[in-house]
Amino acid sequence: MGILDLPNEVLDIAFKYLLPPFRSQSLAETYVFTVPVDLLRVRLVSKRLHGLATPLAWRRAQLQIASPAAMTYGNHVGLPAQCASAAFSARSSLRSLVRCRFFHEQPELAAHVRVLLLSLEWQSEHPDLARSALRAATQAMSGLRTVLVWDADVLAVRDIQQLLQRPLLRAVCLMDVDGAAFPAQCAWGAGLKMLHVANSVCPARLIAGAAASLECVSIELARSCPIATQLQLEPTPTLKEMPWATLKEVSLVDCVNEEDWFCFLDGFKLHKSLDRPSALTELMVGDLAGLEPDRVTQLLRTFSGQPLTRLTLFHVLMLDPSIAALIVRTFPTLRHLTVLTEGELAPWPGTLDTFAQNFARLPHLDTLAWNNFPLGNEGAAASMFLHMSEESLGTLYARPVHALLRRIKGLKCVKFVSSTDCIVDTVRIGTRGSGKRLVEVRRSTEAAIHTSSWSTTCGGFEDI
User: Looking at the DSSP assignment, which residues form a beta bridge with residue 139?
Assistant: First the structure.
């Protein structure tokens, strides 16, 4: 049997594996889409394979536009000649403008686009020309599921709203957007499930626009509206109005100033006091300036009784056995626990067995990620660690992992994380006979474990 003898449904599944990975080390970093060369080649084999591979080949579109190239776009769409006389030098911008014209002239291919990445880098001199290019390119993208926008503050609010009101839209990532410029009751598409907002002002205003359907919210490096904005007559949403009835996953990273922090906590307290149901099962909180123990305690007491399955706390200033015990008492349903103190792998206060005894009281725990490990941080020891083979890492981690296994019977995976070195060593555990053993150790260099693995949804935008 040859490949052409397989049914279309099987070929469609197989061709999806030809798509390059869709990932970034951090949601705060630009995604890079690789051209699906193999899929483009498959389209040349036959008319049948052409029809099957074309929707996947055009599944993702990346448009990167800078101001010099944007000013020449008038040549392609008939804008006034005086606006289209400047030269350009950015090759990526030229390719993107050609792609804009292509999508405008080939709406049947534009309709296949499910994921759109906009990287916008122009100055305010001629923004209308670049906006015209984007409107021409995106108006035929009727099947959009995911939109990621970098430097979104250069877009007019009206343009962003029109882009995000698509009926099939499910996930949105907005970087560098002035949320204070949006109306308090702005509305996104009715089916929006996931919203990531970073480097932005007034993220609560953006969240309020999709409150009816949101299931996953991630706020990173954001801040509340300035006082001058809050004094306006129009009411300004705050993190106190989070849609807890629908939210399943919440991430709050590097935006926990005093006002936002207490709005965040008070909102959930109010929701609980009214006996309203909450869908929350995954929670992540972190602060690169250091998450103080008092805030950890406040967080645990506020969300006490919520049936979380995944909890991530990172850059905790200090974590001793008493805080570990409080985590266990507060969330006995945890399956995945990530707790990172500041910096590199280093021993925590208290013995390894003390922490293992605490975590053993989590009957469903199968994954533990932490940086509690006495790695020497001087000279040759640190240098050797960075260049260890996976076999050597297996020997290095054997003792602490087996110490955990003696207490935590259901453990399947342990991750040792060095934020300083941007390293995550994942130890997977399997069974042999009546005992458990280390199956494999894999090293990855993830710059931000908190944003790439905190959520079952986050990092898989286009799979929503």
Answer: none
Q: How many angstroms separate the most distant Cα atoms in the chain? A: 79
Alpha-carbon distances of 22 from 103, 147, 298, rounded to whole Å: 21, 13, 36
* Mean pLDDT per 10-residue interval, the chain, length 464 residues: 86 86 47 72 90 89 62 42 39 68 87 84 57 79 86 71 84 78 73 84 80 85 57 66 91 78 92 92 83 89 94 87 94 94 81 92 94 65 76 88 90 87 86 71 65 44 45
What tokens were used for 354? 């003390």
> Which phi and psi (to 5°) does residue 358 adopt?
-65, -50
3-state secondary structure the chain: CCHHHCCHHHHHHHHHCCCCCCCCCCCCCCCCCCCCHHHHHHCCCCHHHHHHHHHHHCCEEEEEEEHHHHCCCHHHHCCCHHHCCCCCCCHHHHHHHHHHHHHHHCHHHHCCCCEEEEEEECCCCCHHHHHHHHHHHHCCCCCCCEEEEECHHHCCHHHHHHHHCCCCCCEEEEECCEHHHCCCCCCCCCCCCEEEEECCECHHHHHHCCCCCCCEEEEECCECCCHHHHCCCCCCCCHHHCCCCCCCEEEEECCCCHHHHHHHHHHHHHHHHCCCCCCCCEEEEEEEEEECHHHHHHHHHHCCCCCCCEEEEEEECCCCHHHHHHHHHHCCCCCEEEEEECCCCECCCCCHHHHHHHHCCCCCCCEEEECECCCCCCHHHHHHHHCCCHHHHHHHHHHHHHHHHCCCCCCCEEEEEECCCCEEEEEEEEEECCEEEEEEEEEECCCCHHHHCCCCCCCCHHHC
Residues 157, 137: Cα–Cα separation, whole Å = 18
**CA atoms of 337 and 330, how far apart (whole Å):** 13
Between the alpha carbon of residue 267 and those of residues 34, 270, 309, 407, 437, the distances in Å are 42, 5, 21, 37, 45
Amino acid present at 156: A
